[in-house]
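Notes on consecutive records. When two proteins share a document, each keeps its own sequence and its own token line. Never mix them. Below: protein one.
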Amino acid sequence: MDGLFYLAHLLNAGLGFLIYLDPILFKNYGWWFVAVGILTLVVSLVKFSYSVLFQARLFLLVTIGYFAGIVKAINPDLAFSPVAIDSQTAVIGAKMFALTSIALFGASAGFFFAWKKKNNTNLMIAAQSIKPAYWKTVYWVSSLGVLITGYLSAISYGPTVFEGVYGTGEGQGQLLGNLQSIGVVCLVLSFVSAIRVKKINYFIGVLFIAFYFLGWGILLRGGRLEVLSGLLALFVVVPATQGKVVKLSAKHFFIILLLAIFMEVWGSLRSTLFTGATETIIEGYVRLAESGVYFAGTISAIASTFANLLHMVDTHVVGFSFGETYFDYLLRSPPEFIYPNRPPDLS
């Protein structure tokens, strides 16, 4: 497996580099490139079976760029999103596929070598050595953090999908940089501390704040990805506190499939519940396909953003940031009233 892993990544990244330099290659040999890319992804997912979080992020990363490439391999004139179709040219689609192949190599290499250097300290033993009184403090502080971020999330998103149309700008925007990420961290700490305290009222409390934050503060207002990331974090971290390493099994893939279907359905309903639109999800997908748009819900939405960015780079509207946005992410964490000149959120 190791030999195939190395060979697949080197070949796929090399092909990606060639495609980026000459996108016409993808038009002539697109399906061969797609086959190599998918093989590399499958080998990587098997190789990194010991890290569910990395598997999930890697799969999402690759799906976005490869979806655009596959659509263009089917027909260069097809679009992969109904938004900003003019930027979804065959060249842009090929470059999306190429950069995704290179990113797959970089992400896999970085994680592979970092894992080999990881600290083997037994976190379970370290957690068990902490006194229960400490975990009680952690529980109350983190629970307060969840309640605050849940409330701020509700204000940021605006009314629920039953009270207004999602995405119309009725909310106040992100009042705190990386708001939902902070809430997820606090929620995980609440769950872990409740497990350590081992009292039923703590478990009841943490279930309430989880629904408050993920359900009332995000999901009912149209948010989805933050809910998934929170559930995934709990799925991995909570067993880890008991010394267990979560690995994906067949039943997990079935659950993930159901969650994905639910989130896509919710993504459609969140824009129609208030208006009472009658077109079904399937009818909408068929209508778009007949018009030359292969729509895949959230994947298409993110892919169109990727395409727009490459289009702006090609037309010299923006340039490469060379990793600067990673530092900007940290600088956006403080509230705007504390740091009014924080970097803007480019998304």
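Protein two starts on the next line and is unrelated to protein one.
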Amino acid sequence: MDFTSFHKLRTAVQENAHPADDRAAAKLRHSLETAVAASGLFSEVEFGHTDDAGQMVIGVCRCADGVLPWEAGMGVERLWLTATADLRWECHTVGCTDSLMELEGAVTIDESGHYITVHVVAEPAVVSRVSLVAQDGRRDEAAETAGIQAEPARLSVPG
């Protein structure tokens, strides 16, 4: 699901239900944090909770050496689906670039529609970031040698 569709769906849930209590959010946070930390995809994992209805559970991670953000995104999506398998309803979206993995999710936990929202981001491993900077430097040097000015790398997203 794309981010726009996810946000529309999450907003509809938020307008028609109430946030779950802190105990339910803490249970989902603990489940996700434990799974993400044990996955081997990340060298650093930190989860918490906020009062923001759009991201009640938050996570900030750093990819392990050799794990690219898109690989981490695929893994986190599987972990999310496992952690939410027994809940009444879920939706989520995952986005990845060279420098960021992002998962946003929402679940309802009971028949009355109490919801929990989640937002997890991950940066690439330090080694990967150094590699990207080195690649940019080599591209700039090659362009300078050729007598042209290098443009920054750009990601294009099909619309």
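For the record: Helices lie at 3-16, 22-38, 69-83, 126-146.
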